[in-house]
């Protein structure tokens, strides 16, 4: 009724005191509390590629920078690229460029008998028609893999820097340790020796300019990386005359989105664009913050949408929906039908109580049913079983319970909306008996739980 | 080594400085995220969170002006997206480096720290100033770092690894001002061809142009012209403010730029060439990008000035415009010979460093290099100390810390 399209209509109060749509809530069986996505800990479960649905172990994903090894994204429009096969003539005739011959149909092979057709592959975007040939890449003889990726041209320089600063950090650490624990010099010396810095420390102990980094450079530093500090230059290249004379072809210039999609390279012209590997996605498991039990644990396989553990509120907590089509008039009492459904396999008793919140979202005067409502157990076969057993007589008060169907019932509340409010919200508390689902034969003990609910009536 | 995340949240100075230039337009700053020890950020993404249920997109720069709890909620969602959509790692018990501007409001960084420590339970957070971090990519100790970002230009000298806070200079002119200048010029005299008519004035069809269109125009066809041509442009401006096209040098070619699927803008060469002139024009307080750099040098002690002027590092997205550095150098050389500076400033040479990165992620890379070293643990605020004290030390309160623990100086050595 109001669950699938308009989930904001009925909100439950989460244990963190926030109103959240019912279908987005979890229910921790161990703390017996509702949890929203902000009061659970999210954890990365496993990595997978959204295109080929291939699983990747997390260590491998880390190494590959969270990118799939076989799927590529279009550098122009970020759509997934597909691999195309074509035949290329190789043989007696001089090897022709792939651009001219690959587009010919394979029938061309018969006209030139000495040439042998060879299958080659290239990547093409089905959306914007970009192909790997536009990026100046040679066609590959194998269907997957084999595409080289361009590296950051500054890799060597950056790794030198990283190494240099790591060593500076070590020197600093040794110095600090020495300063803090003067009594344990011997132990420290061993510690320093581990990093090949004995003589540096010895120098410091001898009182030879301990703070100057030059003492490190001069002494034994076979192990210390020499860093070439960057030289500033005042010879800055002048802008080429092409900028002033040449017309700009917009199709050849990258947009900012295209260029920052590969931050390390940031191409400026489209002819340099290279396909980039598809980013992986993750499956997440969710844990209760209080008891650290898993609330959601997805199935390992990326193509499966099942869960190993799923403690979703819909399956465990009675659900309230609003029957639509109510005409509300300010300051006039009207009858609104709410439905209540029982998700558990046991009979459930629900009492509707007025809200006890100090700051109430409800802005209507509401008359709630005073009797206890009894909900039949959920029976999954009942829907398919037309005959079924006759429903038990619950001896309902017809003034309160309007209808009853399987595990669901509709009850009446009387609402007097406020004049000033734009939307009529009703809030109340339900008290229900929750029974832990157990494998043992004996019926579990019921626990009475309270839950605040708010509904938007109109 | 440990894999720390490094976010560069180049927090801009929106609330203080942006009022003079195109007020009311949207503001973004892109966030770069990745792992320490890597050669570049994994992702550069706009700092906004989209809520498909509510069908809205919330920009973090907008909600930082609103209440703190709203900012907290948005940051929780944003960092959730960073971790589980982009970085794909568990945030719990990880070390985080955040590279921020020195002018980042305390309320913002406190809220960010609260989100990271309380909600994501990270092991430690280091807030590092972006100017200092830029030096780690170069291996030098002394430089004048000029960050030409989106809303403002921020120059800060660093001598022997120590930022000279007394000499910082800012100017509310940067990328956003270029967008404004393009918009103004387009609305003034740009011709449009539509389905119905040819060569209509753009201002008759539109009152304003969307900022992403302006950014696209800037990135794809604008450049910074050389000194001589800029002077010729200035000479061509007549007394009444109009431009005498007869006096101008031959203009760069016109570019046809499609907008909205039904209009074609004919963007003339003078717009492409002079869009970035706003950086070098003097504002009401007689300030421009070069004068800010010279003032910054002037505020430093006299023995540092020569070294600083010969070690200039330009970072920030606006610095990627073609011809930017060459023009800046030319302007500095010209300005230093004007009477205002010729006497007080004896430097005559301006040299620029080239970082092993694109200017728009230089300080991120510095943070990544710094984060890969072991000093990170001793420099950053750990979860225990945060939960104990509940505050993030501000850089203005560093003096207090230095007096108690003299080795906690936030410098290289």
UniProtKB/TrEMBL annotation, chain A:
It is found in: Cytoplasm, Cell cortex; Cytoplasm, Cytoskeleton, Microtubule organizing center, Centrosome; Cytoplasm, Cytoskeleton, Stress fiber; Cytoplasm, Myofibril. The keyword Translocase does not apply. The keyword Coiled coil applies. Belongs to the dynactin subunit 4 family. PANTHER family: DYNACTIN P62 SUBUNIT (PTHR13034), DYNACTIN SUBUNIT 4 (PTHR13034:SF2). Subunit of dynactin, a multiprotein complex part of a tripartite complex with dynein and a adapter, such as BICDL1, BICD2 or HOOK3. The dynactin complex is built around ACTR1A/ACTB filament and consists of an actin-related filament composed of a shoulder domain, a pointed end and a barbed end. Its length is defined by its flexible shoulder domain. The soulder is composed of 2 DCTN1 subunits, 4 DCTN2 and 2 DCTN3. The 4 DCNT2 (via N-terminus) bind the ACTR1A filament and act as molecular rulers to determine the length. The pointed end is important for binding dynein-dynactin cargo adapters. This is Dynactin subunit 4. The gene is LOC106821324.
From TrEMBL, chain B:
This is Actin-related protein 10-like. It holds the Pfam family Actin. Coiled coil: none annotated. It comes from the Eukaryota. Belongs to the actin family. Signal peptide: none annotated.
């Amino acid at each position: 009724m109001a669950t699938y399209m308009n989930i904001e209509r009925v909100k439950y109060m989460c244990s963190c005191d926030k109103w959240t749509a019912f279908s987005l809530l979890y229910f921790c069986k161990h703390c017996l509390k509702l949890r929203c996505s902000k009061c659970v800990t999210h954890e990365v479960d496993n990595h997978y590629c959204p295109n080929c649905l291939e699983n990747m172990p997390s260590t491998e994903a880390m190494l590959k920078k969270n990118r799939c090894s076989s799927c590529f994204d279009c550098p122009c429009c970020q759509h997934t690229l597909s691999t195309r096969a074509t035949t290329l003539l190789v043989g007696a005739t001089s090897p022709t460029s792939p651009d001219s011959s690959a587009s010919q149909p394979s029938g061309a092979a018969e006209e030139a008998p000495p040439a042998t057709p060879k299958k080659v592959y290239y990547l093409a975007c089905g959306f914007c028609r970009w192909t790997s040939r536009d990026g100046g890449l040679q066609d590959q003889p194998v269907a997957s893999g084999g595409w080289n990726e361009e590296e950051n041209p500054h890799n060597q320089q950056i790794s030198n820097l990283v190494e240099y600063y790591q060593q500076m950090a070590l020197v600093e650490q040794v110095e600090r340790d020495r300063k803090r624990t003067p009594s344990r010099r011997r132990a420290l010396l061993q510690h320093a020796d581990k990093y090949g810095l004995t003589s540096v420390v010895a120098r410091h102990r001898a009182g030879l300019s301990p703070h100057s980094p030059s003492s490190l450079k001069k002494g034994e530093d076979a192990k210390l990386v020499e860093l070439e500090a960057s030289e500033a230059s005042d010879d800055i290249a002048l802008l080429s005359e092409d900028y002033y004379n040449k017309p700009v072809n917009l199709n050849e210039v990258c947009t900012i989105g295209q260029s920052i999609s590969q931050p390390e390279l940031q191409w400026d012209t489209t002819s340099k664009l290279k396909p980039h590997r598809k980013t992986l996605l993750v499956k997440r498991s969710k844990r209760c913050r209080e008891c650290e039990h898993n609330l959601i644990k997805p199935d390992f396989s990326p193509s499966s949408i099942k869960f190993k553990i799923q403690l979703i509120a819909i399956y465990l907590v009675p659900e309230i929906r609003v029957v639509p089509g109510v005409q509300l008039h300010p300051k006039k009492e009207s009858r609104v039908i709410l439905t209540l459904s029982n998700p558990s396999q046991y009979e459930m008793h629900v009492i509707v109580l007025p809200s006890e919140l100090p700051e109430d979202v409800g802005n209507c005067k509401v008359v709630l049913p005073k009797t206890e409502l009894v909900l039949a157990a959920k029976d999954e076969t009942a829907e398919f079983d037309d005959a079924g057993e006759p429903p038990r007589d619950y001896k309902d008060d017809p003034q309160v319970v309007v209808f009853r169907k399987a595990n669901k019932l509709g009850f009446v509340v009387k609402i007097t909306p406020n004049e000033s409010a734009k939307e009529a919200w009703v809030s109340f508390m339900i008290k229900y008996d929750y029974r832990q689902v157990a494998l043992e034969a004996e019926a579990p003990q019921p626990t009475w739980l309270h839950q605040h609910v708010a509904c938007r009536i109109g | 080594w440990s894999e720390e995340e490094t976010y560069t949240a180049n927090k801009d100075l929106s609330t203080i400085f942006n009022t003079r230039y195109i007020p009311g337009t949207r503001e973004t700053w892109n966030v770069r995220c990745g792992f320490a020890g890597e050669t570049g950020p994994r992702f550069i993404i706009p700092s906004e969170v989209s809520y498909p249920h509510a069908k809205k997109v919330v920009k973090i720069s907008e909600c930082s002006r609103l209440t703190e709890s709203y900012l907290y909620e948005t940051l929780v969602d944003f960092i959730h997206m960073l971790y589980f959509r982009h970085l794909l790692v568990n945030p719990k018990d990880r070390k985080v480096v955040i590279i921020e501007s020195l002018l980042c409001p305390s309320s913002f960084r406190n809220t960010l720290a609260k989100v990271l420590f309380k909600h994501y339970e990270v092991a430690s957070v280091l807030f590092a100033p972006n100017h200092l971090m830029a030096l780690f990519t170069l291996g030098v100790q002394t430089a004048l770092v000029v960050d030409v970002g989106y809303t403002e230009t921020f120059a800060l000298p660093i001598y022997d690894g120590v930022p000279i806070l007394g000499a910082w200079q800012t100017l509310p002119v940067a990328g956003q001002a270029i967008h404004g200048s393009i918009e103004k010029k387009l609305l003034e005299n740009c011709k449009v061809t539509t389905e119905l008519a040819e060569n209509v004035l753009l201002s008759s069809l539109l009152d304003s142009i969307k900022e992403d269109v302006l950014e696209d125009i800037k990135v794809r066809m604008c450049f910074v012209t050389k000194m001589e041509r800029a002077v010729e442009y200035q000479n061509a401006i007549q007394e009444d403010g109009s431009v005498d096209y007869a006096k101008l040098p031959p203009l760069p070619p016109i570019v046809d730029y499609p907008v909205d699927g039904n209009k074609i803008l004919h963007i003339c060469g003078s717009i492409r060439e002079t869009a970035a002139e706003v950086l070098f024009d003097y504002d009401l307080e007689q300030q421009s990008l070069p004068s800010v750099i010279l003032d910054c040098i002037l505020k430093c002690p006299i023995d540092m000035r020569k070294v600083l002027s010969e070690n200039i590092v330009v970072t920030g997205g606006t610095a990627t415009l073609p011809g930017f550095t060459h023009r800046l150098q030319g302007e500095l050389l010209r300005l230093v010979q004007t009477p205002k500076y010729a006497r007080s400033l004896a430097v005559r040479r301006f040299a620029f460093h080239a970082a092993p990165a694109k200017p728009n992620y230089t300080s991120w890379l510095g943070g990544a290099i710094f984060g890969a070293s072991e000093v990170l643990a001793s420099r950053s605020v750990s979860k225990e100390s945060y939960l104990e004290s509940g505050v993030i030390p501000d850089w203005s309160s560093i003096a207090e810390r230095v007096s108690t623990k003299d080795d906690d100086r936030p410098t290289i050595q």
